[in-house]
Amino acid sequence: MPLEPEAMSGPAGGTRAKRKAKDEPHPRNGSGEDTKAKKARAQSRADEGNTSDKHDMPDMSLFVRWYSPTGKTRVNHLLLKPIQGVQSLEGISKDLVARAFPESNRPDYITSQDFYKFTPADQFMSLPGEIARTEFRLVATHDGYEYTVLERELGAHRDPERKMLVTVIEFESTALMIGQLGMRVSLIAYPVVSIRKSFLDSIEEQLRTNPSFKGLS
Question: How many structural domains comprise the chain?
């Protein structure tokens, strides 16, 4: 179960298909959200009951853009659910984190109270092939509009202020038997997305009090 460099060094990108990769909708600052996103976020709130000490936390999404060696791109839209901590993880996400980070040796961005913790509604995705580069885009939703609040490439060194740290774990599926042949699928998970509290609190305040706020310019 290899880890991406971001998850190994500290903190830290769709189904397998042979068709030509194409981008999913890439919302711009202040763009309206779609119905699917609204429904998923409503379910996220129902599951929350829990999470942070902020009562007016904006809904958060992480867009993960993969670049192939040939220059093709694929964008994955991950709706983020707030959690109290890794003890609130379920299913595959819980197992992956437990195996990758023993409880006695977990990085501070997973355990520290200085970070809000989130987990994607989709616990894992299949890799479409070799990935040459990964980009993250963090989006906050407020009053039905989406605001890009952070963009960076994979790698904790690209975020020296540690505003957002993403746990990235690659693993393989259990062998699927087709006739007498066994086939494994390469998978990737982002089980914990840690966002520094001071950063997200400032974003929430801007969304609430500054009508001119548009996210990243």
Answer: 1
